[in-house]
Amino acid sequence: MPNHFLTIFDIPKEEALAVVKRAHQMKAEGLRLDTLAGKTLLLIFEKASTRTRVSFEVGVRQLGGDAVFIASRDSQLGRSEPLEDTARVLTRYADGLVVRTFGQHKLDVLANYGDIPVINALTDEYHPCQVMSDMLTMYERTPELDKLKVAWIGDGNNMAHSFINASAWFGFELAIACPEGTTRTRRFWTRPLILARR
Fold first, then answer.
1. Rounded to whole angstroms, how far apart are CA atoms 171 and 23?
2. Is 70 exceeded by the pLDDT of residue 195?
3. Please, which residues bridge with residue 166 across strands?
4. Top-level CATH class of 8-122?
């Protein structure tokens, strides 16, 4: 069974800080590895993003792999063929999927019906890669993440949800202030809170 990264909870809790420490080491030493040598990752972006696209393409290459970018106009993700069939077909072409899309359900289908890892590069509900990079930034300033109190002020969006999940995994105290009307739906807001109980 492939290891997916759909939310931060897909990293075992006891390994989450080790991932951040390893990223810190790689950044500090400018490491280039061959971890993905001979592997191809498909970057499927239904939502455009300069930084996310560049960081994934460069990251895959720095790990020795190849990245193929597929924009929304080039993708049939859930349009003219069942998503389940898309997952099965892409499994035959690539070694992993990096998907930036709208609903989290699309990632769930790709993960359930394909045989390759799926990485969440942003959905309306979660943005786990971004929050892991934020954990790295926090770690660079204060390595003892579990002693921090973090304030989130802004929309009750995918990043707020991901910070809620990160607080459960990294142990920091989280205070959230979201202006009224900034949470898209009650469902988006309550689901991560339930997931993040300690």
1. 19
2. no
3. none
4. alpha beta
